[in-house]
Amino acid sequence: MEATKKRQLGGLPPRYGFMLNPYPDQRVWQCPLCERKTGQQKVPLLIHVDPLHLIALNYTCRSCRACDLLIGQKHDIEHLLTELFRRSAPTVIGNAYLIIGTVEKRIWREGVAQPKGIAEMLPQASDFATYYNELRLTCPGYYRAEQEPPVLEPPVSQEWVKETPGPWRRWTERIRAGSRRPKR
Ligand SMILES: [Zn+2]
């Protein structure tokens, strides 16, 4: 669960560590970093969806205040994105997306009434200070002492899917490659 440094997009100082939980039926009750009990925190997440959509999604993350960590449920977020784009731009569903950070609540509230452009949102946004690799769980069961429990493969996206990848992946992939590709 290593973190990487990245280029900053938001105008405010970076905040929070962020981790995606790709298991739809697993709530993260315990912090993966410190094992304390997690709470929840509702924050507007700033999400870039290819080609040029910047979304502020008010979302209740699991959180660990001690570690300043937010954990988003990948399938929940994809469900909300699907609902959102189904009305306005259904061809966007399944495109590459990147959860960049958080935006000020005020900007999110104003954005609900009047959609905001990138130029207005980014100055009021904070990148995540630390971007962790997706959560991985190991298969439950009994294992011999010398045996490593196998990783439980998370299910693929159910709703946020596209038949064939569009030509718009490059923008997001460039950001990933330049700044937040997880180290192995
Ligand atoms: Zn913690």
Average pLDDT number: 86
Number of domains: 1
Q: Low-confidence parts, pLDDT < 50 over ≥5 residues?
A: none
Q: What is the number of strand segments?
A: 9
Major sheet: arrangement of strands? 2-5-4-3-6-7
Count of helical regions: 4
Write down the overall geometry.
globular
What compounds sit in this structure? zinc ion
Distance between the termini: 9 Å
User: What does the largest sheet look like?
Assistant: 6 strands, mixed, barrel
Explain what you see:
- With 184 residues, the chain is an alpha+beta fold.
- The protein has one domain.
- It is built from 4 helices and 9 strands; from the N terminus they run E-E-E-E-E-H-E-H-H-E-E-E-H.
- It has helices at residues 74-88, 105-113, 118-121, 169-180, and strands spanning 3-4, 12-21, 39-49, 53-64, 69-73, 97-103, 125-132, 137-138, 151-152.
- A 6-stranded mixed β-barrel has the order 2-5-4-3-6-7. Strands 8-9 form a two-stranded antiparallel sheet.
- It starts with a strand and ends with a helix.
- 29% of the residues are buried.
- Residues 31, 33-34, 36, 64, 66-67, 69 line the site of zinc ion (ZN).
A few lines on this structure:
The chain is of the alpha+beta class and 184 residues long. The protein contains four helices and nine strands; from the N terminus they run βββββαβααβββα.
Keyword list:
single chain; 184 residues; alpha+beta; six-stranded mixed beta barrel; two-stranded antiparallel ribbon; 4 helices; 9 strands; binds zinc ion
Topology:
Blueprint: E1 3-4, E2 12-21, E3 39-49, E4 53-64, E5 69-73, H1 74-88, E6 97-103, H2 105-113, H3 118-121, E7 125-132, E8 137-138, E9 151-152, H4 169-180
Parallel strand pairs: 2-5, 2-7
Antiparallel strand pairs: 1-7, 3-4, 3-6, 4-5, 6-7, 8-9
Bound molecules: zinc ion.
